[in-house]
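Possible regression after last week's pipeline update?

I re-ran a chain I had predicted before the update to compare outputs. Posting the input and the new output here so someone can diff against the archived version. Not blocking, just want to make sure nothing changed silently.
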Amino acid sequence: MTDSRVNTSLALLLFAGFLAIGAQAVEPQAAGPASAPPRGLSPDTQPPADELPPDAIAPPAQTPAGAAPWQPPAEQVVPDQIGGPSGPRITVSGLTAINPDSAGLLSDGSGGFASNLWAGSQRSTVVSRMAQLPSAPASPAMQGLLRRLLLSSAAPPSGAAPPDEPSLLAVRVAKLVANGWIGEAESLAARSPRDDGFARQALAESLLLQGRDADACSDATALRQSANDPYWLKLRVLCYLQQQDLPSAVLTLDVMRERGITDDAFFALAGALAEGAKAQTTALPAPSGLHLALLHQAGIAPPAALAAWAPATNLLSQASGDSAIRLAASERAAVAGLLPADQLRAIYETESFTPDQIDDPAEAAAKLPPARANALYFQSIVKRTIPAARAGAFAAALQRAETQNRFVLFAELTSGLALQIKPSPQTAWLAPYIERPLHYIGNDKAAAQWLLVLTSPTDAPTVNAIQIHAGLARPTPENLARMQGAMAWLGQNALLPSGSKEWLMERATREIPLLDALGYIVPPDAQWAVSATTAGISPTGPAAEALASLSRASVDGRLGETLLNALVALGPGGPSRAQGQTVVRVVKALMAVGLRNEARAIAIESVLSAPVRLRK
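New output (post-update):
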């Protein structure tokens, strides 16, 4: 009985001790203001005590004379056994606020980057460069890096956001929307605090761009009912129109006009809907999901130019009543990596053309919208059965795709057709054209088959291209075995006069520096090309600034900044349009931060998308 009472007393004392510890750990949180951010488990985001408002700091209890001074209850250690002198310890610590900027949909183990992505970086630098990121670049390699960068969960960079600037989370979500990743934007924006106006605007846009107007007027965007920023006032009008509350819509429009808010297209559409008049608009110079929702409510087909706007492509490719807009939006979505190539191939095949158009696509294309003309060129390959004629159609379609900076899309669209065109003496001239799409889709064996029909001495430049491209795209031991001799041959012959000199010089100054950047050993005969002047668009403005910052960021190991600078330096045209030296510096920087596969993908796009320049 005595033992029982003793054990019970000890248990009560221990329970009381836990309550005291818990009260101390929770007290600072309870004393904080109601608008404080939610508490979490991250130990790095608790603000220093001298930055907290006075009423958020719990005063210490009175300390008896001679007793040890009061210590903040940041950590308490409790033994695992009553009276036990040693053994495992339980640590109880105060909870700290979770910074929403660290939220993401990808982690290091699920396709994202490491949680220290922004280590060593300042918030102002990151946000400034992130605002300069290209939207929907014409490069799958860049699209992959950009998507992973924006979606990765990582501790935010150092520095606090000014109260009137978007949070890092909001900036990331806005960039996701601009690239057409609408579903991901919605999921990430939903993790933002409800008082983050910029992030919640992006959430509303992502919903409207999916045609979910009712969801955009739900509790998820409750800020529209109280905030007076132009966007929220516009959304308030849209929701009033959706609810058939026309007087409130008219009143809000009047308030917007009094405040000097300008948006001619919005006022024309919303005003007509509120007054029961016929809505009209001719252009959308700065389109948004709000405009698309108003067009839908008014029953007006969107302008054809809107099909080129990446955020709207998925919606228009599915819901537009205009077949030309659906086709153009589908093609733009495929270029932006939002629509699989096989789906665009199927869409191309549903287009109807006359036999005369199929026979002479060049003449017919001049009278057709660009997307429909591209479908015609694709069908001109499919519907030719004579090998030489199909080879001619393939080369013509490839050259058209190159002028549009769509080599990669063409390679994916024609992957099956390229395998159907067999090498022969009659089609040998096609080798320098067809080997590049074949290498891009990873079929180096099919590309190597074209070597069998290249028997003339004048075919040596094409043989060399196949050998080098194979070693770059598929670095197997067999392909790498030919690389040294092939690079030496290219370095020697690019300097000699010949009918292929222009093509060889362009290849040497683009390919050899990239191979050097990837770690290939460049033979002495080709060393001159490593530092040669290269073709392409020289970076200017933000791209030039990013290129200047790229090397330092990579040397210092600032992974996130390295990626931001690389993407901005390459620009919307991607590796196929960027100057050769720019691509080389990007590849070197990615290699320096351990992104070897990503660097190779950039180099492959740059090399294989370069057009053939043979003298005819």
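Follow-up from reviewer: compared with the archived run. Confidence is low (pLDDT under 50) at residues 1-96. Marking as no regression found.
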